[in-house]
Amino acid sequence: MDRGYRGVKEVLGTAIVTPDKPDKQRTPYQKQKLRNGFKRRAAIEPKIGHLKQDHRLSRNFYKGIKGDNINVMLAAAGMNFKRMINKWKLNPLVFLAQLFQTALRLLKSQYDLIQNLYNLKMSF
């Protein structure tokens, strides 16, 4: 067992680490490193809970490993889309500005493509 951990449990090749009581022999750097690692894991767990509860990730509706991947990607895309919509609700002008920027980029890329094709024809 590693020093600084109450327990290390391995599941499918992934080590799950739980903290123990603070040790006086550890340096402040070691303590901070452990603290940051556990904070990061604690921040991810609620997101997984929201995905399970709100985005139908508790049950897989597709078959096989590919189905598992599809289910996770769709749930994550739905969660990200919901976050974007909530940000746009707060400030609709930002949404409109992003929409116009995207449209201008698409128009410019199509114009550049047509220009390149025209130049290619003229070179023959």
Helix content: 55-70%
By secondary-structure content and strand pairing, the structural class works out as mainly alpha
Give the termini separation: 72 Å
Read across the widest sheet, the strand sequence of neighbours is 1-2
- Give the oligomeric state of the chains in this entry, treating copies of one chain as homo and distinct chains as hetero: single chain
Number of strands: 2
Instruction: Count up the helices.
Output: 3
Question: What string, H for helix and E for strand, traces the elements in order?
Answer: EEHHH
> What share of the residues does DSSP label as strand, in percent?
5-15%
Largest sheet: 2 strands, antiparallel
CA-based shape: elongated
- How big is the Rg? 25 Å
